[in-house]
Amino acid sequence: MAKTTTRPNPTTSKKTEAVGSAAPDGGADIRMIPLDQLEPSQLNVRKVAASASDDAELLASIRETGIKQNLVVHALSETRFAVDAGGRRLKSLKQLAEDGVIPADHPVPCLVEDERNAILTSATENLQRAAMHPADQFEAFDKMIGEGRSEDEIALKFGVSVDLVRRRLKLARVAPEIIERFRAGDLTLECVMAFTLTDDHDRQLAVWNAVKGGYHIHPQSIKRQLTETAHSANSALGRFVGIEAYEAAGGVLLRDLFDDRASAHMENPELLERLAIEKLQAAAKPFEGTWKWVEVHLSVDYGAFRSFGRVYPQDIEPDPDLLAEEEHLIAREEELAAQNDGEDWTDAETEEYYAIEPRLREIEALQRERQPFADADRAIAGVVLTIGHDGALRVEKGLVRPEDIPAAAMPDEDSADAGDASSPARPHVTPPTSSTPVPTSDPAATLRKADGISASLADDLRATRQHILRAHLAADFEVAFDAMLYALCEQALGRSYGNEALDISIRPFQAQDREVLHADTVAQKMLEALEQDLATDWMKLQKPEDFRTMSALPIADKQALFAWATGLAVKPQLSSDNRPSHIIEEIGARLDVDVAACWRPSAQNYWGRVNKGHAVATARKLIGDDYAEDRNRERKGDLAAAMERAFAETAGETEGFDAATVAKTTRWLPDGMVFAGAAEADAKMIGDAPEAEEGDVPAADALAEAESNEPSSLPAFLSGDAA
């Protein structure tokens, strides 16, 4: 047996050092150590094994050519050594010894180092050889930081950028449960990267629990849920407030460290909105007292301004300095444009040319701003300050509410005014161009007042409500016929902007990336049952034979097709939207859609996506203080799961609630989900749900009823029964 203290000859030593791992901090010793004295090290950072094919290739290489690179070890005793770097080579050598290719005490070149360098050496060796699993890299960097090594030192040792080290360390702070799922292959590296938008492990785990059951886990889905309550810094609201002002006020900023193009997200929407309102209110101060009214809105549908009348400023002579600058810029623009279409421009001339048009727009705005409004006009008109699509302040002056528009003068009044020079001028108001009611509050206020309802969640609730209404409308010919006839007349008779007579198209309104919301729901089962019974064989024929065959279908089959197609055209909305379609609400009420029977708030679709305060407040109002306090002490994920059980149809059995509480929790719906005017409308507000009555139809019974109903008959005037 070779002695463990024997050094290789100088030639061998030099070769080994050239191809082997360097001793990081000195104090290393190169020895030929018998194979049977070597064992795997617990400090080796590689915990996820290489593939079987990679191991087979390595075994074949060592069998043919031997060890080309020394192992790196530290001493356990005088006769036992742990292999910190080279575990796969050790495994291959042990296999060759077992196969009888080499002796059990075959000498192996080893670099002996201090144990304190084991993690650094193992990580270095593995990063530079067969790729480590990324999770092992995260853990190794984190351990080295824990040993007191700096980011700069780690970057220097590995020959990588400091930024790369920081990104790896960021990944190391992802919740351990998620990292383990990554090691197990349940999600990709890109998905792990997506979780780094926040360091809050509770938040990470809540999102993971929400997405893990999906068919395909996509990084964008993770990012969407992590940022659904946040605003992009590039959004109009984010740009209006600004990152500096937001962070100065204590706001938390979420940044995607793995995408330099990605926008940062402002995680405190309440703070962001408060800062924006304060900034708008400050900008509104100069207008107060000089106009009849002044309002600030975070956002306004620009079409809403057509609901106001208008007064306009008086014409005055333009500012001579601004006018002279404008004329100079126009002449200079023409001069530059004449220079071979810009091909001969210097960099300075190019910059000058493209700066002219923005300045001309500024001058136009400044000239317009100088134009005064008459006192009589300001006495009946107001100003709206809001945030434009570009994040800039938008000021709309001269808006006149319909009730403030002066009545038209009578003929004798006109004569009297003309003959009386002392009569004040009657304000000239351009009438509104839209009959839509004038908004009296911020369009986003309705959803914001329901604490914790993000824009993304509101969109999902709209899509869910749309899906439920679609299923009911697709099963009812009479309501579908009336809805479609109404839409046809709106367009064909000129009441709609799309007024091309009979040029009607149905574009099924699909909610993007929300298929998971509808999977295995009552509404989806209703739609699937209806679709199976549709007479669609005629659609396989060539034109015009398909039309002839469809025309020959029984009337009941035509009714079912008509209702189905009409149902697909339903648009999404909540009844609490700022300006909901009254027609959609009327359709839902006429169909007597029982939303609570078709949808219950779960951890995935609701409770895991609202803030904790909203969930606790809801529990307190509907269930009681004790239950609410218990939920308040729980982590977000546990709270969401408990609320799902409490508001499920089986709450009475699983939670042991009394009948009165069950009647409230099993019928509760978020604001806007109930169709306005429906029989269950009294149940839509928290705490106002009625006791269960005999006439209430459970979801399963509603489905069975929908599947068994025959299509309704045609109206009399179509069926020939009319007198």
**Distance separating the two termini:** 115 Å
Helix and strand composition category: alpha/beta
User: Could you tell me the strand content as a percent range?
Assistant: 5-15%
User: What Rg, in angstroms, do the CA atoms define?
Assistant: 37 Å
Inertia-based shape: extended
How many individual β-strands?
12
Structure annotation, total helices: 34
- Largest sheet, order of strands side by side? 1-5-3-4-2
Mean pLDDT: 75
Low-confidence stretches: 1-27, 493-504, 679-723
Query: How would a crystallographer describe the biggest sheet?
Result: 5 strands, mixed
The proportion of residues forming helix, as a percent range, comes to 40-55%
Task: Describe this structure as you would to a colleague.
The protein has 723 residues and is α/β, with parallel strands linked by helices. Among the domains are: 10-132, Conserved hypothetical protein from pyrococcus furiosus pfu- 392566-001, ParB domain, CATH 3.90.1530; 189-265, no CATH class; 449-590, no CATH class; 596-708, no CATH class. 47% of the residues lie in helices and 7% in strands. A 5-stranded mixed β-sheet has the order 1-5-3-4-2, sandwiched between helices. Strands 9-11-12-10 form a 4-stranded mixed β-sheet. The protein is extended and about 110 Å long.
